[in-house]
Amino acid sequence: MPWTHNCAFLWPQVFFAMMQSMASEAKSIRFNVNGVEREVNVEPEKPLLWVLREDLQLTGTKFGCGLAQCGACTVHLDGEAVRSCVTPVSRAVGKKVMTIEGLSAEHNNALQEAWIAVQVPQCGYCQTGQIMAAAVLLENNPHPSDADIDRVMSGNICRCGTYDRIRKAIHRAAATARVRS
Amino acid sequence: MKFPKWYTRWASVARVAGLIAIAFGVCVILALLLTGGAQVPNTLVFAKSPLSSQQERSIAAFREVVTVLQYPRCMNCHVVGDRPRQGDDRHLHLQNVMRGPDGKGLPGLRCSNCHQDSNNESAGGPPGAADWQMPPSNQPMAWEGLSVGDLCRSITDPSRNGNRKVGDLTPHMKTSLVVWAWSPGPERTLPPLSYEQFTAKVQEWIDTGAVCEK
């Protein structure tokens, strides 16, 4: 009797494993990152965070909780502050992604300057997510009140508790941006 | 006593017409009694008529529907105020999430920033369905604190239900966000009726006149 007959009970498992590997097959995915058209060959359900960090070497975006709870992984997707740890890269197809690396070529974005001037970070791990969320806030509200800032920035957690300095830096950046415009 | 000829002729015609009218009326009443009044319009009311039982059926159907509407999977977004809730204990949504004018959050903290088109299957991960949102701020469809009758009137009132007629509620029950309640992802409980039971009860309630209890 051929050996394959002895292992007949395994065939369903083998079939299931083949189906699973087919389901998670890598595909060519194109999207714009920081103004540059990029193409990656990855599984469509792979989180955008890991495509940015592993496949495109853009490590400024951080992994925090992996559950969209902390905001450390915030990037812009067509101008929205999405949590890249739970966003499948397939959602970015044909869209524009901006990471902290793309916020300004010379690190002279009003927010970045304000962050340095106010010396916001302590450990710094959450700060790229904080800045990216603040950028969307200022884009939609150039003159935010404390309450406006609290409402929008509540989704970004800082383990070191730098919230007061974050708020101060956002006000400063808003003032700078208004002068520049 | 002698009547004029024209009078006797018209009197006999009137007698025949009256008899026909009486016979027709008797037939209608017999027909209503024998058929159980199935086609009686809602405006007619008879003492202990079958119409009352139809209304009662409608009210009973909605009492089952409401067990789903008042379940946390629905109620957590049909809130009074602008803050959605989470979980079976209905705690306030973390991250200070707000409704926003269109019901999809505020710029910088939109629902779709975290909620995708499908559930995140990790325990504690955000649930997801297409068009994840709360009711918009101009029609917040707040159900918290409403009695069964008031909730019923709320969802049948186009000025409070998103401009829907009663017949439009059935297609609404097939939207991805409503259907999501029966596949909510890990660690979330299901409504007390199955989806099939729920939609059948909604249809029964509508077919029996979408009656709301007082």
Can you characterise this structure?
The complex is a heterodimer of chains A (181) and B (214). With 181 residues, chain A is of the alpha+beta class. Chain A has helices at 3-6, 11-23, 48-55, 110-118, 127-140, 146-153, 163-180; strands at 27-33, 36-42, 74-77, 80-83, 96-98. Chain A has two domains: 26-103, Beta-grasp domain (Ubiquitin-like (UB roll), Roll), CATH 3.10.20.30; 110-180, DNA polymerase, domain 1, CATH 1.10.150.120. Chain A is built from seven helices and five strands, in the order ααββαβββαααα. A five-stranded mixed β-sheet of chain A has the order 2-1-5-3-4, sandwiched between helices. Chain A is globular. Chain B is mainly alpha-helical and 214 residues long. Chain B has seven helices and four strands; from the N terminus they run αααββββαααα. In chain B, the strands form two sheets. Chain B has a two-stranded antiparallel ribbon. The chains are: A alpha+beta (181), B mainly alpha (214). Chains A and B meet through strand 4, helix 5 and helix 6 of A and strand 4 of B.
What labels would you give this structure?
heterodimer; A: alpha+beta; Ubiquitin-like (UB roll); DNA polymerase, domain 1; 2 domains; 7 helices; B: mainly alpha; two-stranded antiparallel sheet; 4 strands; 4% strand
In short:
The complex is a heterodimer of chains A (about 180) and B (about 210). Chain A is about 40% helix and about 15% strand. Chain A has about 180 residues and is an alpha+beta fold.
Q: For the largest beta sheet of chain B, what order do the strands appear in spatially?
A: 1-2
| CATH T-level fold name of the largest domain in chain A | Ubiquitin-like (UB roll)
Q: What kind of sheet is the major sheet of chain B?
A: 2 strands, antiparallel
Proportion of strand residues of chain B: under 5%
Overall average pLDDT of chain A = 91
- Largest sheet: spatial strand order of chain A: 2-1-5-3-4
Shape category of chain B: elongated
CATH class of the largest domain in chain A: Alpha Beta
Assembly state of the chains shown: heterodimer
Class inferred from helices and paired strands of chain A:
alpha+beta
Tell me the name of the CATH homologous superfamily of the largest domain in chain A: Beta-grasp domain
Radius of gyration of chain A: 21 Å
Tell me the β content of chain A: 5-15%
Which consecutive residue ranges of chain B, at least 5 long each, have pLDDT under 50? 35-48
Helix content of chain B: 40-55%
**Main sheet makeup of chain A:** 5 strands, mixed
Number of helices of chain B: 7
The secondary-structure class of chain B comes to mainly alpha
Number of strands of chain A: 5
What is the helix tally of chain A? 7
User: Could you state the order of secondary-structure elements of chain A as H and E?
Assistant: HHEEHEEEHHHH
